[in-house]
Amino acid sequence: MKTFDIPEQDEYFRDHFSGVSEDGKRNWFYPQKPKGNWHNRRVWFTVLILALLFVTPFLKYNGQPLLLFNVLERKFIIFGIFIGPQDYWLFGLLMLSFMVFIVLFTTIFGRLWCGWACPQTVFMEMVFRKIEYAIEGDAGKQKSLNKAPWNSDKIIKKGLKYTLFLTVSFLIANLLLSYVIGVDEVGKIISEPISDHLPLFGGIVAFTAIFYFNFAWLRDQACTVVCPYGRLQGVLMDRNSIVVAYDYKRGEPRGKLHKGKDRNEGDCINCHQCVAVCPTGIDIRNGMQMECVNCTACIDACDSIMDKVGFDHGLIRYTSENAIVNKTNKLITPRVIGYIVVLVLLWSVSGFMILSRTDTQTTLFRAPGSQYIENKDGSVSNLYTFKIFNKTNHVVRPTLVLDNSQGKLVFAGTPDLTLNGAGMSDGTLFITIPKAELKSRKTKLKLSVYQGKEKLETFETTFMAPAY
Ligand code: SF4
Ligand code: SF4
Prior knowledge:
Layout: H1 37-55, E1 60-61, E2 64-65, E3 67-70, E4 75-78, E5 81-83, H2 88-109, H3 112-116, H4 119-136, H5 139-147, H6 152-180, H7 183-191, H8 198-218, H9 220-226, H10 228-231, H11 233-236, E6 243-246, H12 248-251, H13 273-276, H14 297-309, E7 316-319, H15 321-326, H16 334-355, E8 360-366, E9 373-374, E10 380-390, E11 399-402, E12 408-412, E13 424-433, E14 442-451, E15 454-464
Antiparallel strand pairs: 1-2, 3-4, 4-5, 6-7, 8-10, 9-10, 10-13, 11-14, 12-13, 14-15
The structure holds iron/sulfur cluster (2 copies).
């Protein structure tokens, strides 16, 4: 992709990972405090994202959470749509749609998600990093503090920082759990004796430890080593994708600014400010790299340098490779159209399935190995096994009704037909039909499930009789 010559000493980036040093040790980054227009915009966006993240678990629709991802009980609520264990196909379809949407979004807008909305970046750069800057100061001061002996100043600063890190990690663990089991259950863990909720409390402690480890130590490596989305960028993006990019046509050949002399070089004055602010330690001038989370810090850093030297903003900016090279950009490419078509199809199928979904799902099969029974009054009975699944998140009390027959339906025993949310009831029952109704060996029976006067579902089964 690159069409300019890179100084030989700068070619190292091609086969080196910025997070690891020559001797295989972790490169610990001390990015300089970002400031500028883009950072201010990100701060406001972060306020919005955090408000949404913390408020959403409290939002309810029809008495249930707006969003719930209860992986423990395989119950999900997506914008008020309850998806229980019986609807795993719908969940799969919605997840597939979401993945295609991510692919489409990334093809057009690159890693916009990473820089602006990903909880990892939002919490790392806008919460934990801010705490660090507030307590330890900017990059230089942090480095000095880490090298300093353990005097009272260092103990107080580090103690305060890590206590705050732990507190925020605990808060995030509770937040995560409120999306998994609901805010009401989290409230119970907090207000009731811990001994009543030991497993879930253990979960909060474990996730607090995981978040603390992530934000205090793992940091940029969560994006560059762990996150699969970052690693897929190479195949998801193309020359038209909008990314944070260095305009090498304008910037090269780079060279120091010499006051009073005519400048024959490009606009990049090789000040390395874009590298100094980068939280993943890369040089954006080497082109798009897997480590770049599109945090915009280098845009602000470069713009402030451009202000100082009197050049136009935007040497590093949101743009595409095609826009840099050809000065044109096409957002809607055949590839994008292809993704949109697939996405519309998936959304249409999902929408149809959601709208045609019934509140219950009933299976009624003739009991294995059973024959028809000829009764003394001339009627015929068949024995069935049944299962009724409640696909809603509230209690359902179903009744089974024969739709197209004068026959009767009698349960064997007394099955409990009060179904809790996502609950199930099963048992056996007899269907008895007067002989006069039976014209052949096999009769198709239509049945319905009602709750009160509301019909929830209709289904069919087969009734066997002697050949008359
Ligand atoms: S901040 Fe701008 S001028 Fe300075 S090295 Fe980076 S791209 Fe060049
Ligand atoms: S290269 Fe720029 S946008 Fe990418 S991570 Fe580094 S500072 Fe952020």
